[in-house]
Amino acid sequence: MHWRVTYQLAFYKKVHKKDSQHQLWQEGYQPKLILSDKIMRKKIEYIHNNPIKKGYVDEDWHWRYSSARVYKGLDGVIDIEKFV
């Protein structure tokens, strides 16, 4: 599985990027100021739903690398502090 992720990161690297072999973040996006708990929850939900939208999984918590697993009470790949 590891080689597939590495391959994808190399594939999506922009041709004009000369300082790295891989690209993790999509170009053109800027950070947004989160001003309320409601907005924070919406952002977390949006992130959790991305693997479903792409058709990778049927449930958000099925995505191994998602913090949705922690929100469902399951073990995650990395430790996170849940936003309540």
Q: If you compute it from the alpha carbons, what radius of gyration comes out, rounded to the nearest whole angstrom?
A: 15 Å
Shape: globular
Distance between the termini: 32 Å
- How many distinct domains? 2
Helix content: 25-40%
- What about the largest sheet? none
Structural class, judged by helices and strands?
mainly alpha
Helix/strand order? HHH
Would you identify the regions where 5 or more consecutive residues have pLDDT less than 50?
none
Average pLDDT number: 82
Instruction: Give the strand tally.
Output: 0
> What percent of residues are in strands?
under 5%
Total of helices: 3
Write up this protein:
This protein has helices at 2-11, 37-53, 68-71. It is an all-alpha fold. Helix content is 37%, strand content 0%. The model has no long low-confidence stretch (mean pLDDT 82). The protein has 2 domains: 1-26, no CATH class; 31-84, no CATH class. It is globular. The longest helix is centred in the middle third of the chain and has 17 residues, at 37-53. The chain has 3 helices and no strands.
